[in-house]
Sequence to fold (642 residues):
Amino acid sequence: MSVPIVETKNLKKYFRTSRGDLHAVDDIHLSIEKGKTLGVVGESGCGKSTLGRVILRLLEPTEGEVLFEGQDICRLPARQMEKMRRQLQIIFQDPFSSLNPRLSVSDIIADPIRTNKVLSHKQEIQERVVELMHTVGLSDRFINAYPHELDGGRRQRIGVARALALDPQFIVCDEPVSALDVSIQAQILNLMMDLQEERNLTYLFITHDMSVVKHISNQIMVMYMGQCVEVAPTDELFQNPIHPYTQALLSAIPVPKLRRDRGKRQLIRGEVTSPVNPKPGCRFAARCPYARPDCTGEAIPLTERSPGHWVSCVL
Amino acid sequence: MEHLLEIKNLHVVYKGDGALVRAVNGVDLTLDRGETLGLVGETGAGKTTTALAIMRLLPERTGSIQEGQILLDGNDITKASDADMRVLRGSLVSMIFQDPMTSLNPTIRVGEQVGEVLELHHKDLGKEEIEKRVDEIFKLVGLPPERKSEYPHQFSGGMRQRIVIAIALACQPQLLLADEPTTALDVTIQAQVLELMQRLKEKLHTSTILITHDLGVVAETCDKVAIMYAGEIIEIGTVEDIFEGREHHPYTVGLFGSIPDLEKKERRLHPIDGMMPDPAYLPEGCKFHDRCPKATERCSAQAPSMHMWESHGIRCHLFESGREKTE
Fold:
């Protein structure tokens, strides 16, 4: 097995609130090999975006380590971190709010190039911007357009171009296609996979869409209230989901095929409860159809059920 | 029997500073009582504009119905006065908007927002009666009535969408227009909301037009499907026609090719190249021809008409001489 390019150990991010600590990311261990994609799935508020931000050190972790090529980036001094950031980029979820409405497309894409002083000549920057626009399938007639003039798909392409501007090795993709139409979504997914192949990029792909995550990931981690409840290679997770939450998540996906036994799917009750000062034990227990007394009280460790397939459940 | 909704040759345009934007270009649609129609298509296909036209809520200064009829329960609402529309909206036809975060008023208690609809349409109801009805509606959509004096921000996304549904259904409209009602929700919550809508449909016999881009949602909830592209319906049929039929419009094929299949392992998706044409500058002939893998010269010159076989219709020259050859 090759060496992981990104690793986290015991990673925690708590937010202090007036009611106590909000456990957004709670003890996450993960590792991603170079050129691979780890999909992170879970519902809103499960901590997946926070995880992505902590890994990039856009948020400082409360505890734990983030290793990039073996180096703990959380301990890097500011100057070195600045350099490191060229390797680590992010594509945001909402192409409507992640682009500065007062900058033109060329300024948005050129921004990281200028900030990091990769190129200094105006002409060179312009050429690079055009090249990036072509890479992501944007016509250069939009070069002087402003974000509000473009539709979601094109805006997200700007987001991808901006993330690629510094030739990073690792990109956190935070729901990059969630706001897009299916055919545009498919174009962006194909684009991202092509880019991954060409440039040997490593992705942490955050999404709530199970079919998207299945398509793009080599490995999938399911999060629930800040914790990893199950992690497995993609095919294994879909064929053999063990955690009741994973099972519920999979059965909730609307499939574009007619089901004769409509309405038979397993619905889980209720909604995610508050991640403020959670009680020890399984955080899904309150909604779990198989909950038992031993689900609560003590932390439930991840155990390896088959090679690479880890589950945190007493069953 | 008379259709609940019949749209004939609907054309909607937006006039901006620049060119005329042709958002809906000749839509024909019928919906019977108790039916659910999935209106599928990508952003800009004209789905929401069609719904807004039915609600007569097109932006006043820019949008207008240029041509066509919308017969709701036999009456052409394109000719209805604003005062008449205010009576119809909420009582005969209601709309659920996509984003539950922005479609509720953040400064008004949710119970009052539900009660407002009742107050407007049932002037004879007293305060207590309205309160009672609000409680019933809350229970119907699975919300605890005790929370009716709270504000929208105190609810989660799924709960807010339930409130929006409660408002839409408060006066038991016959037609519900649901514009991407679950798009902003998590899958498990989406499943709950879809189940709720299904249950309410069975209970109240509401006809629904479900606007969505999610073919999965359509397969699970709809009876009929209309696929829109550049302001036209390019394929229409029963869910069986669309999901199990062998013949499809090339755009429909592309739409299905864009969805990652959970059961198959494919490295690449097969989306349609390019994007939907700018509705201000629609191409001549078939509006899909410049993206269509099967386009011929004729497609760029002559607009195809809808070719129907029983319930299934495809707007494409390929199917002009019927389907016998391929069947």
The longest helix of chain A spans residues 182-199. Chain A touches chain B at residues 43-44, 151-153, 181-187, 189-190, 193, 208-212, 214-215, 235, 238, 248-249, 252-259, 262-263, 265, 267-268, 271-272 (CB under 8 Å).
